[in-house]
Amino acid sequence: MVLTYKRTSNPMMNRPVVKKEIVDFMRERQTQVTGPLKNVETFAHENNIPIIPHETVVYFQLLLDLMKPKRILEIGTAIGFSALMMAEAASEAEIITIDRNPEMIALAKENLATYDTKKQITLLEGDAAELLPSLEGEFDFIFMDSAKSKYVEFLPKAMELLSENGVIIMDDIFQGGEILIPIMEIKRNQRALERGLRRLFDEVLDNPKYHTSILPLGDGVLMIKKREHEIQTGI
Fold first, then answer.
1. Whole-angstrom Cα distance, residue 223 to residue 211?
2. Can you tell me the mean pLDDT for 164-168?
3. Residue 147 · residue 200 · CB < 8 Å
4. Which pLDDT does position 227 carry in this prediction?
5. pLDDT at 6 > cutoff 70
6. Less Cβ crowding at N or C end of the chain, within 10 Å?
7. 162-171 and 221-226 beta bridge pairing
8. Is 98 helix (H, G, I), strand (E, B) or coil?
9. What residues form DSSP beta bridges with 123?
């Protein structure tokens, strides 16, 4: 029996990490966005438009700097904040972003026309389920931040479009902890969303086809990558 860690056990090991105070620390102490991104972020917060939180922004900035993707696909443009952030973090990348909400599309077009000075971003209007099959080539980074119930439906085509070392990231997968609640205890109008997320987890978690990781950033981020065997066999 190993006694060392029993005698001097670290009490922090079994404490929850992401408390409100920790979230506030991550959002306040990490480098803030500036310039055009700050303008778009401020507009989003003032108008209650959901955008990725600051701790996720900083993570994306670092990840994209490491990956240096050539092509990025985003499903769920909203007002263009995350697309502009990714364009800034991956200044040589081509970015395709998809949205179907007319009000968001109009606002995104204004922001992209004003701030996408290098013309990296192409906005496709319509349902992602209909547009994804028309896309060609590979993407090194795919970000889904749209209808959560549809993530599992978008996954097969997204995997086809993903490059050998590419990564898929899906946002807001915790749903404020509702993924832990029995489905019949969830409000009826939320059950389709929850069923879609649970189908997604059943498909990708502990599946030898995928490398997966869940990160407690914002309302939860799921990362998915092809395993080497799937790359070699083309599955």
1. 8
2. 96
3. no
4. 87
5. no
6. N
7. antiparallel
8. strand
9. 97
Cβ atoms within 10 Å, residue 108 = 24
**163 in Cβ contact with 138 (< 8 Å):** yes
Q: Which residues are annotated as a binding site for S-adenosyl-L-methionine?
A: 52, 82, 99, 127-128, 145
- Tokens representing 214 are 């869940």
pLDDT at 42: 97
Q: Which two tokens stand for residue 208?
A: 């030898």
What is the per-residue burial (b if ≥16 Cβ within 10 Å, else e) of 80-101?
bbbbbbbbbbbeebbbbbbbbe
User: What average pLDDT does range 46-60 have in this prediction?
Assistant: 95
Residues 6+ apart with CB under 8 A from 197: 148, 149, 151, 152, 173, 175, 179
For the whole prediction, is pTM greater than 0.90?
yes
Q: Who wins on pLDDT, 232 or 133?
A: 133
Residue 2 pLDDT greater than 90, yes or no: no
Looking up tokens 């108008």, which residue turns up?
47
- CB atoms closer than 10 angstroms to residue 8: 7
Binding residues: 52, 82, 99, 127-128, 145
